[in-house]
Structures are given as structure tokens and as C-alpha cells.
């Protein structure tokens, strides 16, 4: 492993599966004791630590799902205590507002979590129902206020836009409501129809392109005016509240992934050459619980590195430096120079920074496709 490293912990259960979601999440039949899952996570970490010779402490941790707010804080505490987390590291946990009744915010803080990411999605009860969410808008507000009162000083709200039948006014009302709560960070995602989800089998009527374009333009203005700086396609922050964990992903940094279906990325030097590997875990919770120490590892082919790097780095509004490309991929800049210059001539990317222009950010897929081999 090279440089700083992050840790992703996956919690694969939800109360119900939302029809748009393609994350590795499985409906939970009843409230369960997650002691076995805790033991598995710790075994998983210990085996990866030994196999990949991991020696650094983690600069950030993200407990994602699924619905990790269903995890008992005592299990969470036990899990986090077994991990080498650097002092002052950002430790985020995702929270579904429909589980706030189970979430003991003070215990979650004591367990080591210092940032919450709340899946609000919308503040319109009809939209929430259409999205198959298990909570109403007022429950999100209550969860947010309780988390603040109990001491969370770093909170993100996830909001989705382009919802079935959504008007520009409704999308703006969602953002106004989110902004009024004064979260530190807002993730504003356009709803995408993912393969193999309920919405891909029975696709709802989505807003037409002109409506989507207006929602996006007016939403970006609104967020900027409210003091939320856009630093990634869908991420907006108050000063200094960037999600460090996600910035590491978008900078093609290393991370260890533990838990059912978790992915990891690790780089190492072998005889002077940088090797980037991807790791995966069994995604079925039952299978994972049986064999948490099994980690599949595949090396990324050298010719795939540019596209993988660009896919991440160019999502950031300011991109990364040209040198960072070489540091993170082990390849000289000249590997991509011709492609880059052709894109710069079209006004899509910057000359001296590995970043898109404002125009290019709108055509990210086209730009990234140029690096496919
Ligand atoms: C792993 S989910 C998160 C958290 C938690 N399970 C919840 O739903 O409240 C992370 C976020 O991705 C976003 N998301 C999930 N599926 C999406 C889709 N198909 N299109 C756009 N955003 C999506 C949602 O905003 C969601 O809160
Ligand atoms: S609660 Fe979150 S992770 Fe679970 S199914 Fe819904 S969107 Fe996916």
C-alpha cells in the first residue's frame, strides 16, 4: 500500500429494498443481533491486514450500506475499536431517517462516528412513497435535529432530483428545505435508473429533458447562493466540510473494503512498477458470514489505469494535478498526452491541470470514454 489509506465498511441489510437502489442491500426480516457480523468484520480486517501487509492507520472511515444505522452502537464500537484509525480521522456513518428511532446518536458518537450522512432523498411525502422510502419528511427533520442536539457537528444530507413526475418547483422546494436545516454538506444526486432494479423493470415516468436541465441549472444556483461550494459532480460543501473519504476515492487513493460485497483498491510497488489491485468480498451476507476471510484480488491491467483514473479524478471540479496522475497510476503523463491535448483543443479539459473545464464537466462521460482502450 502506498500513501494514506481509507477504510470502507459495508453493512448489507435494509428494512426494505428501495426500487431504485442497486447497492448490495438485502431486506432484513426482523431485528437481529449483529454480533456475528461484527466478528466477521474483524476477521475480515485481520486477514486483509496480514495478506496485504497493511501497516498504516486509516485517514478516513466510511460505514455505508445498506442501512448501517441499524447496526447496534455497541457492535459498531467493537468494530471500530478493532481498526487502526488515525487520530482526528473523519468517520462517517450513513443513516436512513426511517431507522432514527433505533439510532442512539450519543452512543453512535461514542462508538467513534463523527460525521453522519442522512438519506433524506426528498421532503415531499408523495415522492418518498413513490421511492419506496420507509420514512416521511418530518422524520428526516426530527432525525437531523436530534443528531445536532446530541452533538453531531458534521452532517451530510443526500437529496435526489429528477424524481418520477417531479416539477422544477418541487425539486427546488426539496433543496430549500434541505438548506434551511443548515447541513454541513449536501449530496444532490440525479436519480438514475440502474439495471436489475425494480425501477428498471417498471420504469416510472421521469421529467423530460427540458425540466431536468432547468432543475439542474436552478439547483446549482441555489446551492451556490446558500454557500454550498460544488467540488464534485454531486457534492456540495460549506467551507472546510468536504467529505475527505470521498475525496480520497476521487483522487484514486487506496482503500480497504470490509463487509459483504465491499470493494477495495490497493496499490503496491513490485520491482519498481506500480501495481493497482481491486478487492471484492462475497456479497451474499450468508456466504460472507461463513467465510469473511476470503478476499478476491485482481490486478488492474496497466492499459486500464488511465480510464479508471479519469473516471474518478475528473468528477472533482478542480480535478488533480498532472503529477498526481503519475503518482497514482505509475504511468508517465505522456501516456495520455495526445488524448488530453485533443480534448483541450475542444475546450473540454484544462491545459495545466488534470481537470475538466466548466463545459467539460457537463460531458464527463464523453471525456472519460476517450481514455477507453
Ligand atoms: C447507499 S445509499 C444510502 C444510505 C441509506 N441506505 C439510505 O438510503 O438512506 C447512498 C445514496 O445514494 C443515492 N442513490 C441511491 N440509488 C440512487 C440512484 N439510483 N440514483 C441516484 N442516487 C441514488 C441516495 O441518495 C442514497 O442516499
Ligand atoms: S435504504 Fe438505502 S441502501 Fe437500502 S435499499 Fe434503500 S437506498 Fe438502497
Q: How much helix, percentage-wise, in residues?
A: 25-40%
What is the CATH class designation of the largest domain? Answer: Alpha Beta
Q: Averaging pLDDT over every residue, what do you get?
A: 96
The shape, in one word, is globular
Low-confidence stretches: none
Please name the CATH topology of the largest domain: TIM Barrel
Largest sheet: 9 strands, mixed
> Total helix count?
15
The main sheet orders its strands as 9-10-8-7-6-5-4-1-11
Distance between the termini: 26 Å
> What is the chain-wise order of helices and strands?
EEEHEHEHEHHEHEHHEEHEEEHEHHHHH
Small-molecule components bound: S-adenosylmethionine, iron/sulfur cluster
Radius of gyration from the alpha-carbon trace, in angstroms: 21 Å
Question: How many strands?
Answer: 14
**Oligomerization state:** single chain
Keywords:
single chain; 373 residues; alpha/beta; TIM Barrel; Arc Repressor Mutant, subunit A; 2 domains; nine-stranded mixed beta sheet; three-stranded antiparallel beta sheet; 14 strands; 37% helix; globular; binds S-adenosylmethionine; binds iron/sulfur cluster
What does this protein structure show overall?
With 373 residues, this protein is α/β, with parallel strands linked by helices. The protein folds into two domains: 5-247, Aldolase class I (TIM Barrel), CATH 3.20.20; 302-373, Arc Repressor Mutant, subunit A (Orthogonal Bundle). It has helices at 35-51, 73-81, 105-110, 125-130, 137-149, 168-180, 198-201, 209-225, 244-250, 285-290, 305-313, 322-329, 334-345, 358-361, 364-369, and strands at 5-11, 13-14, 26-27, 58-65, 85-95, 115-121, 155-161, 185-190, 229-232, 235-237, 254-258, 263-270, 273-280, 296-299. The strands form three sheets. It has a nine-stranded mixed beta sheet, sandwiched between helices. Strand 12 and strand 13 (273-280) form a beta hairpin. The relative contact order is 0.12. Iron/sulfur cluster (SF4) binds at residues 14, 17-18, 21, 23, 25, 65-67, 96, 119. S-adenosylmethionine is lined by residues 20-21, 23, 64-65, 67, 94, 96, 119, 121, 158, 160, 189, 191-192, 194.
Amino acid at each position: 500500500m502506498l500513501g494514506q489509506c481509507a477504510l470502507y465498511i459495508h453493512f448489507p441489510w435494509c428494512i426494505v429494498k428501495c426500487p431504485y437502489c442497486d447497492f448490495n442491500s438485502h431486506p432484513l426480516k426482523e431485528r437481529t443481533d449483529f454480533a456475528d457480523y461484527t466478528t466477521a468484520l474483524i476477521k475480515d480486517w485481520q486477514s486483509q491486514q496480514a495478506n496485504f501487509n497493511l501497516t498504516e492507520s486509516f485517514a478516513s472511515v466510511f460505514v455505508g450500506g445498506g442501512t448501517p444505522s441499524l447496526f447496534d452502537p455497541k457492535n459498531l464500537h467493537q468494530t471500530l475499536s478493532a481498526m487502526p484509525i488515525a487520530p482526528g480521522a473523519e468517520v462517517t456513518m450513513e443513516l436512513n431517517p426511517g431507522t432514527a428511532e433505533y439510532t442512539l446518536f450519543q452512543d453512535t458518537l461514542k462508538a467513534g462516528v463523527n460525521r453522519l450522512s442522512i438519506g433524506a432523498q426528498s421532503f415531499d411525502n408523495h415522492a418518498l412513497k413513490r421511492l419506496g422510502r420507509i420514512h416521511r419528511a418530518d422524520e428526516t427533520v426530527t432525525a437531523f435535529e436530534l443528531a445536532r442536539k446530541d452533538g453531531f457537528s458534521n452532517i451530510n444530507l443526500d437529496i435526489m432530483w429528477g424524481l418520477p413526475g417531479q416539477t422544477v418547483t418541487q425539486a427546488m422546494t426539496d433543496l430549500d428545505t434541505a438548506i434551511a436545516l443548515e447541513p454541513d454538506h449536501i449530496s444532490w444526486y440525479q436519480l438514475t435508473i440502474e439495471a436489475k432494479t425494480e425501477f428498471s423493470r417498471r420504469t416510472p415516468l421521469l421529467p423530460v429533458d427540458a425540466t431536468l436541465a432547468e432543475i439542474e441549472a436552478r439547483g446549482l444556483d441555489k446551492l451556490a447562493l446558500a454557500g454550498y461550494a460544488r467540488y464534485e459532480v454531486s457534492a456540495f460543501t460549506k467551507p472546510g466540510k468536504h467529505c475527505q473519504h470521498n475525496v480520497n476515492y476521487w483522487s484514486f487513493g487506496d482503500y480497504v473494503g470490509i463487509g459483504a460485497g465491499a470493494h477495495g483498491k490497493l496499490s503496491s510497488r513490485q520491482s519498481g512498477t506500480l501495481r493497482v489491485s481491486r478487492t471484492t468480498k462475497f456479497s451474499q451476507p450468508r456466504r460472507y458470514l461463513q467465510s469473511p476471510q476470503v478476499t478476491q484480488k485482481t490486478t488492474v491491467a496497466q492499459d486500464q489505469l488511465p480510464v479508471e483514473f479519469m473516471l474518478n479524478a475528473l468528477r472533482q471540479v478542480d480535478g488533480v494535478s498532472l503529477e498526481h496522475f503519475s503518482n497514482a497510476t505509475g504511468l508517465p503523463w505522456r501516456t495520455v498526452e495526445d488524448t488530453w491535448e485533443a480534448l483541450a483543443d475542444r475546450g473540454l479539459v484544462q491545459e495545466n491541470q488534470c481537470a475538466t473545464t466548466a463545459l467539460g464537466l457537463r460531458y464527463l462521460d464523453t471525456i472519460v470514454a476517450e481514455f477507453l482502450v
